[in-house]
Amino acid sequence: MPQNPLFADRTQAGEKLAQAIQNILTQQTLDSGVKPRTIVYALPRGGIPIAFPVARLLGCPLTIEVAKKISHPENPELAIGAVTASGIVLWEEQGFYRKIQPSQLKEVALNSAIEQAQFLQVQLGFACPQVDAKGATLILVDDGIATGMTMAVAAKSLRELNPAEIWLCSPVAPLKLLPWLHQWGDRLIVLATPKNFLSVSHFYSEFPQVKTQEVLELLKIIKNDENS
């Protein structure tokens, strides 16, 4: 167990994030006199338990935006980019991917990440509601931001849907990453921004792998709430 974790688990972190988002939306509505139409997008799988209390509190649809990191062929832990299930790609800015030789290795890494993303989309997509993102405020949620690559590429993909705004929301992200993240969203909501950032799991007492069945059950609950 990490020392002095910020959050007990994803559920607690999601509840805290939900309250922060609602507070900002409420103030925005008071200022403008117009309540925005919101849709919550989660990065699966870990982002779903965080996004669930957000969608419930806001009373809006919950769906997914699948993004996977593109791993360095010789170091799977090193992200050289990220890609969505729809094929939107974002390479990291240091250009490490350009140094990979031969070039076929880069293509293999990219194709592998796309296959993973598309497989996850097939697993979970059928449980998601049909939503119209045009003109809506999209609340993009993950359980933590480490490099920001998957969050950024997901936002890049969602931007093509012509929303009114995209909010990037997470319980925790490195302080040094915030200026870079701001370029991808219209608003950034992060509960904790530690200077010393080891990994996302370090900030949770409990941080188990999120199973597909758990994700499907949470998506079903929100879908039933919308239909009731």
Overall pLDDT, averaged? 93
Shape: globular
Helical stretch tally: 6
Order of helices and strands: HEHEEEEHEHEHEH
* Radius of gyration from CA coordinates: 17 Å
Q: Please outline the major beta sheet.
A: 5 strands, parallel
Number of strands: 8
Trace the largest sheet across and list its strands.
2-1-6-7-8
**Alpha-beta classification:** alpha/beta
Estimated share of beta-strand residues: 15-25%
Q: Helicity, in percent?
A: 25-40%
pLDDT < 50 stretches: none
C-alpha termini separation: 40 Å
Report on this structure.
With 228 residues, this protein is of the alpha/beta class. The chain is built from 6 helices and 8 strands; from the N terminus they run H-E-H-E-E-E-E-H-E-H-E-H-E-H. The strands form 2 sheets. A 5-stranded parallel β-sheet has the order 2-1-6-7-8, with helices on both faces. A hairpin with a 2-residue loop joins strand 3 and strand 4. Helix 1 packs parallel to helix 2. 39% of the residues are buried. The model has no long low-confidence stretch (mean pLDDT 93).
Overview features:
8 strands, 228 residues, five-stranded parallel β-sheet, alpha/beta, three-stranded antiparallel β-sheet
Q: What is the topology?
A:
Blueprint: H1 10-32, E1 38-42, H2 47-58, E2 62-64, E3 67-72, E4 75-84, E5 89-91, H3 103-125, E6 137-141, H4 149-159, E7 165-172, H5 178-181, E8 187-192, H6 212-227
Parallel strand pairs: 1-2, 1-6, 6-7, 7-8
Antiparallel strand pairs: 3-4, 4-5
Helix pairs in contact: 1-2, 2-6
